[in-house]
Amino acid sequence: MREGRSKNxxxxxxxxxxxxxxxxxxxxxxxxxxxxxxxxxxxxxxxLQNNFSKIIFVLGLSFVILVQSFPKWVIFVTSLHRDFxxxxxxxxxxxxxxxxxxxxxxxxxxxxxxxxxxxxxLSKMLISLTFVAHGLFALGLxxxxxxHFYGMLSVCLPFLGEQGAVIFLRIAGAMDIVVVVxxxxxxxxxxxxxxxxxxxxxxxxxxxxxxxxxxxxxxxDTIYPWLEMSQRLPHALVPFSLFHWxxxxxxxxx
Length: 254
Description:
Blueprint: H1 5-27, H2 33-46, H3 51-68, H4 70-80, H5 88-100, H6 102-113, H7 117-139, H8 147-156, H9 161-183, H10 187-210, H11 224-232, H12 234-253
Helix pairs in contact: 1-3, 1-6, 1-12, 3-6, 4-5, 5-7, 6-7, 7-9, 7-12, 8-9, 9-10, 10-11, 10-12
């Protein structure tokens, strides 16, 4: 399959995650790494002439994403260790949060298998983990909906009220599960599910800065909600990439 929108969107998800990390490094005072990173990106991309150099390039940037996601790995692994388990509720919550960020952490892996058929299967597996975990949070399962979900809704959609927010989250959570099932079908239902996920993934990411009034006074001190957004953009971009992958595959076969 020729390279088209699908892979370009996937690269966008990948670079956004990498850029997020380096903005965080900038905030931490590690400014020297930023020009080195940008220069290495430009040089590497310029000389990607064969499969071996592409693999080296993707592996190198995979390290960036994994470092960005390192706290999530630590929280998950330590939560499974008997010496760190505070209670069953906290352990389950750590697992759910870990699965919710599957797309963020493993986007480099998708780049390595594109455009083979395994790309479609692996993408759907990671999307399923992310959306099912997110849907269960919205449904209040297994231990209630996180408070910040209600906090974001009260700012983004204040007209809902308390009871309306509960109903909205329950419907949204149920839809997360439904579209995961539809994604594993074929034809128009699958494309509908992927398009819905792309739009909903973007809206839930954008809800971070939208619900934070300080985010609109841009400075290094108020940029955190935007970093929260950029970390979650793969939740929208990977389903959108898969949407175009199926579309391009159908065009290529015909």
